[in-house]
Amino acid sequence: SGMALRLSQCFFAAASSLAMCSAFGFSNYSAYFYMNLVLIVQLLWSLYLACQDIFSMRNNRDLHAPDILLFFVIIDWAMAILMFSGFCASASVTIFFMKDMNFCAEYSRLDCSQFTLSVTLAFITWLLQAASSFSGFWLLISFF
After folding, report:
1. Quick one: angle between helices 112-141 and 66-95, nearest 10?
2. Angstrom distance (rounded) from CA 66 to CA 122
3. Distance of alpha carbon 44 from alpha carbon 116, whole angstroms
4. Is residue 70 part of a domain?
5. From CA 10, how far away is CA 87, in angstroms rounded?
6. What percent of the chain has pLDDT over 90?
């Protein structure tokens, strides 16, 4: 189940990042740029942990030692916080563009549908990251 969570995080982070990169001018807005940066870091972190899982399964190595798990849990929680702040800021900007200022209707080059898709996929990525963070935390406290 941990492997499925990590691979799902990779998939949704990549999909969200690709959706954001395909939107014209996303890098002009700091919230979108920040979210995309965090998504790329999330993708790399999840890919690293998925590779660790594969390596440990192939070599019959246990990754559930408390010291290794503590490192993973701390980084997982930091990533969850960064993901949460990134998608919340981007969702706020998207709502501001679409509803408050009606920029999407006025500026046809502003690709609000891509922004919305990317933020939605980032939210799913955060949900998966939060699930990983909580499961790792509960596994860690089971050692004590």
Report:
1. 160
2. 30
3. 23
4. no
5. 16
6. 78
| Number of domains making up the chain | 1
Average pLDDT, the chain: 93
Q: Which of 7-16, 52-61, 68-77, 111-120 has the lowest mean pLDDT?
A: 52-61
Exposed / middle / buried, residue 62 (Cβ in 10 Å: 0-12, 13-18, 19+) = exposed
Give a yes or no: residue 106 inside a domain.
Answer: yes
pLDDT average, residue stretch 9-31: 95
pLDDT at residue 22 greater than cutoff 80: yes
- Distances 53 to 46, 59, 74, 85, 125 between C-alpha atoms, Å: 10, 10, 17, 28, 19
Q: Which residue range forms the structural domain that includes residue 13?
A: 2-53+77-143
Q: How far is CA 113 from CA 47, 85, 127, 128, in A?
A: 28, 21, 21, 23
Rounded mean pLDDT of 98-122? Answer: 93
Distance of CA 73 to the CA centre of its chain: 15
Structure token digits, residue 70: 């503590």
